Amino acid sequence: MSVHSPQSTLPTRSTTNNSNEDDAIPDEDSSEVTKLFNERLQAYKHACGYLEDYVQQTEKMQHAHGKEYEKVLKTVSHPLKEGHHFEQNLGGIAGMFDNIRSNTQGISNSHYETAKTLKGSVLPIFERLHNEIKNKTKELTKGAGKGAKACRQGPSDFAEAHRAPRFDSTGGHLAGKEDPYILQRQVYHRLNKQVIEENSNRDDLLSVQNSFAQFEAHVVQIIQNGLNQFNQCLGHQAEQTRFMYNDIVGTTQRMTPDFEWNGFIKRNNNVLIDPSAPKRSVENIAFPNQDHRSTQPLIAGSLEKKGKLLKKYETSFYVVTPARFLHEFKTDDDFSKDPTPENSLYLPDCMIGSVSGNDFTVKGKDASKGGIGGKLAMSKEFALRAHTPQDAMKWHQVIASVAGGSNDEKPETSAPSSPAMARNEAGYASSAGSPSTYSGSTAAPAYEQGAGAGSHMTTAGKEAAGYGSHGAGPGTQGAGFGHTDAGLGQSSAGVGQQGSGYHGAPLGDKTM
Questions:
Q1: Tell me, what CATH number does 92's domain have?
Q2: What is the mean pLDDT of the chain?
Q3: CA 321, 301, 305 angle in degrees (round to 5)?
Q4: 64 belongs to a structural domain
């Protein structure tokens, strides 16, 4: 019977690790493969966890944005102040704010809806993937990982195969169970079992390794699907926000520039100024006591006043009022400047001189200052000159009728400007010196009384002074001023030619 070598029927394996002579049996460590796969699964699990956190934080952000837009909405939620100034129909400012409110509320709601979709639809995708990776890790640990652990527990007595040198040292005296032959056969038995277990574990690891490619492809597809839904959710929200802002801008752009103004004009037509209506004028305005008799002058017009220093005459506007004032104004213009009188004489406190040609005098205090200043003012003499002798008589008559008194003093006259004036003045002087001037002595006192007594003059005195209503010239009743030799019938005292006709106002004057 031939003896066959046991090595010819034993299983073999290839070594993956370097071995040295001290290793009893070279080993293949499958636990490293299991550890590597386990680390890879952990990496995918952590990556999936990052995506979960990203989606959760985005969901919280969308929810916070919804609250922030509610704060934005509160800025325009109150009714417009003075809102009655705006058209309440669509197409105006009020309609624009209604559109802003509705769209801002829509943006806030869209953020809430996006947060709800992320939490309810997108986040569960990554949560399920996370659980799949965890289950895959458990499967690896309980399957191929457990077999690799068992393979690492090899027979502890493989080193007995190297006890052959002991046989030599003992000279062949060994116990039966320590016979190197038996020990070698036992090693082959255990080695065969170990190899079978390792090959089985190797097949399991190859199966896991091959399935890992498919599992990773599945993981990547799930991540892609989750992020695609994430993008669609946020993209829809961004599109809604853009659409709502465009709607706000579009509503504002469609508002015509004159829409609000036309509505404003229509609502306030009874208050606003009608551009077609004529402008107001002072002549068409009435106010209380506008035509009261105290406001109507007794006589008004331009007179010349002789200056104190240069002795020149300057033209001003004068008026005698029912209040018995003689007011001096620079002009008769009531509009360009406030008509404040330059001088005001209270005529009952004044004295008026007699008329000499166009000239006469009024003496009194200026009452325009009023108060203490008016009382302490010095009495002044105003030398006035009318445009014509007739005008001078009219002014003299009106002033004399309200003045406090009169005198026979005549104003100083300048050198005669013509031979006729010189002859008239010479004739007046010769007549005044004639004995026949005062024939009928009763006429002269009557004239003096009529010329200066004002409102106290009697009818006889007026007739004697030449103010008869029938136009008799002064002196026809005995005063002697109508004599042609005196020359006053033609020049200074020639009022008899016009009678008492001072009712017709001269050019530039008006009497009431």
A1: 1.20.1270.60
A2: 73
A3: 100
A4: yes
- Do 255 and 298 belong together in one domain? no
The pTM assigned to this predicted structure is 0.48
**DSSP for residue 415:** -
Report whether 409 contacts 361 (CB < 8 A).
Answer: yes
| 13-57 pLDDT per residue, tens | 444 444 444 444 445 555 677 788 889 999 999 999 999 999 999
Task: Say yes or no: 214 and 350 in one domain.
Answer: no
pLDDT score, position 3: 43
Distance CA 127, CA 404 (A): 120
Count the helix, strand and coil residues of the chain and give each as a percent rounded to the nearest 5.
55, 10, 35
Residue with tokens 């008006």: 510
Are residues 350 and 234 located together in one domain of the fold? no
The residue ranges of DSSP E strands in 174-311, in sequence order, are: 299-306
SS3 354: coil
On whether both 173 and 225 belong to a single domain, the answer is yes
Q: Is the pLDDT of residue 425 over 70?
A: no
Which has the closest alpha carbon to 109: 242, 241, 243, 245?
241
Domain match, 104 and 231 both: yes
The pair of structure tokens assigned to 283 is 């002549």
Residue 38: Cβ-neighbour burial (10 angstroms; 0-12, 13-18, 19+): middle
pLDDT of res. 171: 61
- Residue 399: give its domain's CATH number: 2.30.29.30
- φ/ψ region of 19 (left if φ > 0, alpha if ψ in -120 to 50, else beta) reads beta
pLDDT digits (tens, 9 = 90+) for 257-294: 999 999 998 999 888 888 888 888 888 888 899 889 99
Q: Which residue has the higher pLDDT, 194 or 74?
A: 74
Q: Is 333 in a helix, a strand, or coil?
A: coil
Tokens in use for 320? Answer: 């005698």
Compute the CA torsion angle 216, 220, 226, 227 (nearest 10 deg): 150
The C-alpha atoms of residue 285 and residue 31 are separated, in whole angstroms, by 116
49 found inside a domain:
yes
Q: What is the DSSP letter of 456?
A: G
Give the model confidence (pLDDT) of 306-364 as tens digits: 888 878 899 999 999 999 999 999 999 888 888 889 899 999 999 999 999 999 999 99
Q: Which of 329, 316, 334 lies closest to 368, judged by CA? A: 329
- Cα–Cα distance list, 197 to 30, 185, 194, 210, 427 (Å): 11, 19, 5, 20, 175
CA distance 499 to 394: 12
- Given a cut of 70, whether residue 100 has pLDDT beyond it is yes
Cβ burial, residue 22 (10 Å; 0-12/13-18/19+)? exposed
Burial of residue 374, with CB atoms counted within 10 A of its CB: 0-12 exposed, 13-18 middle, 19 or more buried:
middle
Closest CA to 215 of 136, 149, 283: 136
